[in-house]
Amino acid sequence: MEDNKFPFGTQFTPAQINLDEVLDFIKNNESETTNNLITFLSKKNNNKAMAENCKNALVSYGILKTGGGCYFTEFGKRLCSLINYNEKLDFFAKHILQNLNGMILIDSLRDFNKTGKKITNESFIKYLNERGFSL
Question: From CA 33, how far away is CA 38, in angstroms rounded?
Answer without folding.
Answer: 9
